[in-house]
């Protein structure tokens, strides 16, 4: 079976310092993969290399067999790659619905033609409303982002990513900054995402993340040092040494 994401020998240096060292990771379709590692281990850099926000020095990243290296981010999105950010990237003075529509508009290659956009607006509204419903914000479509709670904004970001109907979804610390209650809501939401979507998640909250993850990759100083099933990685002494602080 072709992997959903096939990362091979990926390297990235910042001013001589390696942030990603010969990283090879294979994620199969439908998998729920958790990426863990101490601060500065290279987790976000890895995501930026996958999305094209950063350019790799060497190595390959394939999405369902298509080479992404050298491809602009927008094209990667068209191939089915979506991500959420560690720091929320929303338009705070717009409505929730408008934010999701803007995410969809970004996906539309003919978005600069106003007539086309107008003609498609109804479709987009329906798609955006469906995505908001999917994350439990169906009744909040017309609210302004700045008037919503942090947890609701996190869910809005999910809606924006899901509206794009991604094949592979990268989640960068989706639980960061959330209250215990909100963590539960987002944790439950994660479980409702269909298997057609392969998920790779960076997360420090081990309670929720471990429940969700099937396989785990541990990064340390930019390198993959442990990888395996949830049970294997948790039981590995190197995980305890560098991450779980045992
Ligand atoms: N744009 C950049 N320019 C220079 N150095 C960078 C840049 N981005 C990341 N780094 C460095 O690369 C290394 C990996 O950083 P990265 O943010 O990927 O780690 P991380 O595992 O995501 O950490 P955290 O858990 O704190 O988010 C760090 O040493 C960091 O200082």
TrEMBL record:
Keyword Nucleotide-binding recorded: yes
GO cellular component assignments: plasma membrane
Q: Name one Pfam family in it.
A: ABC_tran
Its Gene Ontology molecular function terms? Answer: ATP binding; ATP hydrolysis activity; L-isoleucine transmembrane transporter activity; L-phenylalanine transmembrane transporter activity; L-valine transmembrane transporter activity
Q: Which InterPro entries match?
A: AAA+_ATPase, ABC_AA/LPS_Transport, ABC_transporter-like_ATP-bd, P-loop_NTPase
Instruction: State the organism named in the record.
Output: Pseudorhodoplanes sinuspersici
| Coiled-coil intervals, chain numbering | none
Record flagged with keyword Nucleotide-binding: yes
Among the GO biological process terms of this entry, one is: L-valine import across plasma membrane
Protein name stated in the entry? ABC transporter ATP-binding protein
- Keywords linked to the UniProt accession: ATP-binding, Nucleotide-binding, Transport
CDD domains named among the record's database cross-references: ABC_Mj1267_LivG_branched
Superkingdom of origin: Bacteria
């Amino acid at each position: 079976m072709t992997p959903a994401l096939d990362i091979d020998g990926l390297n990235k240096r910042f001013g001589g310092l390696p942030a990603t060292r010969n990283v090879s990771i294979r994620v199969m379709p439908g998998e729920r993969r958790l990426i863990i590692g101490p601060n500065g281990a290279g987790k976000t850099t890895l995501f930026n290399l996958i999305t094209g926000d950063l350019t790799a020095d060497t190595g390959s990243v394939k999405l369902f067999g298509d080479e992404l290296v050298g491809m602009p981010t927008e094209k990667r999105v068209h191939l089915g790659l979506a991500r959420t950010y560690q720091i929320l990237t929303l338009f705070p003075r717009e409505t929730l619905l408008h934010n999701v529509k803007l995410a969809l508009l970004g996906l539309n290659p003919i978005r600069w033609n106003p007539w086309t956009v107008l003609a498609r607006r109804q479709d987009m509204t329906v798609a955006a409303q469906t995505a908001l419903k999917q994350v439990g914000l169906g009744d909040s479509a017309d609210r302004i982002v700045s008037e919503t709670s942090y947890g609701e904004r996190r869910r809005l970001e999910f809606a924006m990513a899901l509206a794009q109907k991604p094949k592979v979804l990268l989640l960068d610390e989706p639980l960061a900054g959330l209250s215990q209650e909100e963590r539960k809501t987002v944790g439950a939401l994660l479980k409702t995402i269909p298997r057609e979507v392969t998920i790779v998640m960076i997360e420090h909250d081990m309670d929720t993340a471990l429940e969700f993850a099937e396989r785990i990759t541990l990064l340390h100083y930019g390198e993959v040092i442990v990888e395996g099933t949830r049970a294997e990685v948790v039981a590995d002494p190197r995980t305890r040494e560098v991450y779980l602080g045992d």
